[in-house]
From TrEMBL:
Gene3D superfamilies per the UniProt record, alphabetical: Amidase signature (AS) domain (3.90.1300.10), Tetratricopeptide repeat domain (1.25.40.10)
Phylogenetic lineage: Eukaryota, Viridiplantae, Streptophyta, Embryophyta, Tracheophyta
Species of origin: Hevea brasiliensis (Para rubber tree)
Classification via PROSITE patterns: TPR
Source organism superkingdom: Eukaryota
Domain Amidase: 70-227, 321-456
TPR repeats: 489-522, 523-556
Protein known as: Amidase domain-containing protein
Amino acid sequence: MTKPLGLIKAHASNPKLWVVIGVTVAGIAVLAETRRRRRKAVLMNREDFGAFVERFEILPFPQPPPPAAKQSLYGLTFAIEDIFDLKDYVTGFGNPDWRRTHDVAEKMAVVVTALLKNGATCVGKTVMDELAMGITGENMHYGTPINPQMSLFVPGGSSSGSAVAVAAELVDFALGTDTIGCIRIPAAFCGIFGYRPSHGTVSMIGAIPNSQSLDTIGCFARDPSVLHRVGHALLQLNAVEPRRARRLMFADDLFQLSKVPKQKTEYVISKAIGNLSGYQLPKHMNLGQYIASNVPSLKGFYEESTNLQNGTSALKAISSVMVSLQRYEFKTNHEEWIKSVKPKLAPDVSNHVLVAINTKYENIKTLYKIRSEMRACLQSLLKDDGILVIPTVSDPPFKLNAKKGYSTESRDRAFILSGIAGMSGCCQVTIPLGKHDGCPISVSFISYHGADKFLLDTVLDMYSSLQEQVGIVSNLAPFPDTNGNMDASELLKEKGNAAFKGKQWNKAVNYYTEAIKLNGTNATYYCNRAAAYLELGCFQQAEEDCSKAISLDKKNVKAYLRRGTARESLLFYKEAAQGESSFEPV
């Protein structure tokens, strides 16, 4: 036994000893918390949240004289990821050795020119993962931008600085690139909007390529109206388009990957569209099984494990193909520079680059064939009115400077979610939905390739209603986790039961009604609402609910009894007698 432990044992009965121990432990805890808060304060006080590589101001093109319309982005400021060319500036690609071995750009990136022509002012270049080969947002050379929502956690990448500049309100919007989630992931981690356009719809001229078959130029914004305006400017869209009905589909199997309860997201979206016109009731599907049935060339990439269901195998195969395609094209683009310069890279980036450079690729034609089949698959599913609803990310961000970054399993889940739009070329918008357990949460809407205006219009149309529902849900009791046995409709039923016991009849009716909207095939919900209607003297509504409950469950004893009571109260003696004669005890 050590000497300190011996002393404690010898004087264990002395109360003064325990006071000293308690004060010591409390002091250690206070010191640790003080250091944590001090570190957080230092991080938050870093200039510009560490988002920028360099600051400058490039003014927009002059406003055309009347009768020309006012520039759509007039008065807005934006930043660009350090992957875009600006005339007379060196494009750094997130790495000092790249900057050192390249000359200043002779021309402006096409996309930057388009934004300047529309009246926006460019105020700087932002930090990114080295060579766009990461999804965490970390950069050992320029520092990792500080996530304004969670300062001790990574901001997500590769377009980390652009996301942080928007989230910290340093600019109105920012440009980034998205290859395997590089806009969508930081948008989710920083609690802002992120837009990945349909592949090939925004010119990549003047942007350093990572993987041409996957690269897109997109943007971040805090406000959906700004996102909408920037999207129109990037794609040169017409301002007016005939309104179409909208059909939302939840990919239930993808929500099983998420740490955020699906019920919360489903409830918010279902309630939001219930207040709007032109939206069908949401449907549910298993996306993995649909892909397995409609992307035949994918079968050769299924894992040999026999434990995986067919749909899960397809999802993992899609992410694997996406990563292989990115590595192959990265090697084609940058192998010569990597081998000649031998740049200094962060260990994780170096590992990714070495795998890409040293791998021999023998099935390239199949990778491109799968990409074409995926686009056709999603087009067939979504048609011209469909919107696929999926979680943007599966896991929360990990802590800055953590010894262990993303596990293999976490990266696999991230790439499964990123691979749907990545491999199909579809457009996707990340939409912030408040917080869960202190972490920003989001959902993503995906529409078919070329449906960018339809998607942006939908987000703008829905967001105020979504915000309202997020506010309501935040005041409710916590939703069960995804592995729980209670879904959103059951939670509402329980709230209705509680209101009923408290003799809050109207409130109970409202809760049961919301449960029915989410699940109209549950006889108990109608029967319980009928009980509340009886207390309120609404006998006709009670009779109708009981009849509906009986049609769904002919052995629902309470429904027969309550229907009899309702009919008697309405003086429908004949019907009441028939109701009693049809009673079937269980």
